[in-house]
Write a structure and sequence with these properties.
The complex is a heterodimer of chains A (about 220) and B (about 260). By secondary structure, chain A is mainly alpha-helical. Helix content of chain A is about 80%, strand content about 0%. Chain A has a single domain, classed as Orthogonal Bundle (MetI-like fold). Chain A is elongated and about 75 Å long. Chain B has 9 helices and 10 strands. Chain B has a 6-stranded mixed beta sheet, sandwiched between helices. Chain B has a 4-stranded antiparallel beta sheet with strand order 2-1-4-5, with helices on one face. The chains are: A mainly alpha (about 220), B alpha/beta (about 260). Chains A and B meet through helix 5 and helix 6 of A and helix 2, strand 6 and helix 3 of B.
Chain lengths: ~220, ~260
């Protein structure tokens, strides 16, 4: 039989270590996603403001996030700030900061897009019914915004989960790094492990991201 | 002389657009008596939508005054204005129902906003649905209804606030002539039974002809002519009125032919 080298995962606590690494990746993305959604909602609303200063500020912010590779951001926040400001950030904090910085910007842009796609007549008819401002947003505007937002933000969330694999570059031992370590440690005894172990890592990412995108598909169908 | 129930004086509204300013309203004055069905007709761009939005201050005029029942709306605070608006119903061309809620919930909605207890609002909503002839559709969703039925739901919803004024902004423009007629009949019967003063914005002469008692012809932001429907239909003076009548006649000929 073809030797895929999966057997190394059953040696000692290897598989548990891999799952531990996965948890770290999931934890970083989960926290960042939550911060991004909340910050993004606020930012999206601010981005629709006609204020020029705000507009320029958010435009610049968004462009920076789009242009900078996430890895560069990670390096700046983790290594750079220690040197310049003397901050002793843990790698995981640095990762959460970078991913939230990125996610908030993109989420904000999605929220902005969803908000401006709500026709003005929706605001008008809500006001004509004599609704207060909070009622108008709560009952009329937000439900429509969220509906437009979900498929787009799910896409962003899965991208964020996948991109957490970069955090091993600042020394976080997440699932991909654990996989590497296992492969390295067993290079002599099972040289084929590179294939099997990474295949399992692929499967793990799949198991995390697939339900998320299924959820998006389900919600989209239900609301169409 | 009777006093006006809705009165606007010297309304002016200018929008700044990319290629210069657009004067939507140029010193428009109108008075609508209580119980009138008052039509405002004009081609698109005449300023009628802006005018009707000034009546409940969805748009604030640059200058001029808006009196409803003797009260100057422009002097009201935000909260007072909101409460007054609840009594100025408005229906739209595209109905603007809550698509995710069924018909009953849509009609209950304004009462929910006002804090009416559940049982009471359901009872009232059913009563209103009966009035608009949709009591069998209470559980249906807007997507399952025809345009005419959706507008009926919108009318039931607007009546839930027990308005004394109803503003109709091109309320039948998305409907075919047949359905338009039934909606106008419904509005007429609501007017007759509930004594609601109505302002009807339209670009179609036949809508005016069907239910209005008075009409103002609006063109390029000014009132060209204003008076009883029969007078203006029989002896149009302004160019705008003549043009609108011509359009109606051509359409009628097309319908016959």
């Amino acid at each position: 039989m073809l030797n895929l080298g999966i057997d190394v995962l059953f040696k000692g606590t290897n598989f548990l270590r891999l799952l531990g690494g996965l948890w770290i990746a999931v934890r970083i993305s989960l926290i960042s996603v939550m911060i991004s959604i909340i910050a993004g909602l606020v930012m999206g609303m601010l981005m629709t403001s006609p204020n020029v200063v705000l507009k320029i500020f958010f435009r610049t912010y968004l462009e920076i996030v789009r242009i900078m590779p996430q890895m560069v951001l990670l390096f700046i926040v983790y290594f750079g700030t220690t040197r310049v400001f003397g901050w002793d950030l843990s790698a995981e904090y640095a990762a959460v900061i970078v991913f939230s910085f990125w996610g908030a910007a993109e989420m904000g842009d999605l929220v902005r897009g969803a908000l401006i796609s709500i026709p003005g007549i929706q605001y008008e008819s809500a006001q004509a019914l004599g609704m207060t401002r909070p009622q108008m947003y709560l009952y009329v505007i937000l439900p429509q915004t969220v509906r437009r937002l979900i498929p787009l933000s799910i896409n962003l969330i899965t991208r964020m989960i996948k991109t957490t694999s970069l955090v091993m570059m600042i020394g976080i031992v997440e699932v991909l790094k654990v996989a590497q370590q296992i492969i390295e440690a067993n290079r002599r005894t099972s040289p084929n492990a590179a294939f099997g172990v990474f295949a399992v890592v692929f499967l793990l990412y799949f198991l995390i991201c697939w339900p998320v995108s299924r959820l998006a598909g389900y919600l989209e169908k239900r609301w169409s | 002389m009777e006093t006006a129930y809705i009165e606007v004086r010297n309304l002016t509204k200018t929008y700044s657009a990319k290629n210069g300013n657009v004067e939507a309203l140029k010193s428009v004055s109108l008075s609508v008596l209580k119980n009138d069905i008052f039509g405002v007709i004009g081609l698109s761009g005449a300023g009628k939508s802006t005018l009707v939005r000034c009546l409940n201050l969805l748009e604030r005029p640059d200058s001029g005054e808006v009196f409803i029942g003797g009260q100057n709306l422009l002097t009201l605070g935000r909260e007072q204005l909101r409460l007054r608006r609840q009594k100025i119903g408005m229906i739209f061309q595209h109905f603007n129902l809550l698509e995710q809620q069924n018909v009953l919930a849509n009609v209950c909605f304004p009462m929910e906003i006002r804090g009416v207890p559940v049982r009471q609002r359901k009872e009232k909503a059913m009563e209103l649905l009966k009035k608009v002839g949709l009591e069998d559709k209470a559980g249906a969703y807007p997507s399952q209804l025809s345009g005419g039925q959706k507008q009926r739901v919108a009318i039931a919803r607007v009546l839930a606030n027990e308005p004394d004024i109803l503003l109709c902004d091109e309320a039948t423009s998305a409907l075919d002539p047949e359905t338009t007629k039934t909606i106008l009949d419904l509005l007429k019967s609501i007017h007759d039974t509930m004594g609601i003063t109505m302002v009807i914005i339209t670009h179609e002469m036949r809508v005016i002809q069907e239910i209005c008692t008075k009409v103002a012809v609006l063109d390029q932001g000014t009132v060209q002519e204003c008076g009883s429907v029969t007078k203006i239909f029989n002896h149009p003076k302004s160019k705008a009125a003549k043009r609108l009548l011509l359009i109606r006649d051509t359409e009628e000929m097309a319908d016959v032919g």
